[in-house]
């Protein structure tokens, strides 16, 4: 193997780590449902808002941080297997979001629904995040589309 080929091989191996250092990272998780929604879509908006050319967010870190463990693990397996071939946060493979509105539409002491309403590539999206309180943290227990029939939990 030539030195140039070796360097190219090393670069390919290190590229995800290098790019990940510049990507918005999932934060500590939600002390209330609005924070969960704001933190998830803050990352989505940073990448997909404006000209749609921001730093990529780490969907695996988002799942690990914000999803309930019984949703995060099967979600990660489905992503790795290619069973989910689109970004569930924008319902598309590409993203350029506009008119983003985030709101908690229902809330009790133990459950809540956070809603993201926006346009992706000009098409209307309404995505609900069903959340449950686990200890002091709110975790996403399902992602349900209102603009078409889709439930992440059912898809897994």
Polypeptide structure, described:
It is a single chain. The chain is of the alpha+beta class and 156 residues long. It has one domain: Nuclear Transport Factor 2, Chain: A (Roll), CATH 3.10.450. The protein contains 5 helices and 5 strands; from the N terminus they run ααααβββββα. It has a 5-stranded antiparallel β-sheet with strand order 1-2-3-4-5. A hairpin with a 2-residue loop joins β2 and β3. The N terminus is likely disordered.
Structure in a nutshell:
This protein is α+β, with helices and mostly antiparallel strands and 156 residues long.
Name its key features.
Nuclear Transport Factor 2, Chain: A, disordered N terminus, 156 residues, 5-stranded antiparallel sheet, alpha+beta
Topology pattern, helix = H, strand = E: HHHHEEEEEH
Helix segment tally: 5
Indicate the CATH architecture: Roll
Low-confidence stretches: 3-27
Present the secondary structure layout.
Elements: H1 3-22, H2 33-48, H3 59-66, H4 69-81, E1 97-107, E2 111-120, E3 123-134, E4 137-145, E5 150-151, H5 152-155
Antiparallel strand pairs: 1-2, 2-3, 3-4, 4-5
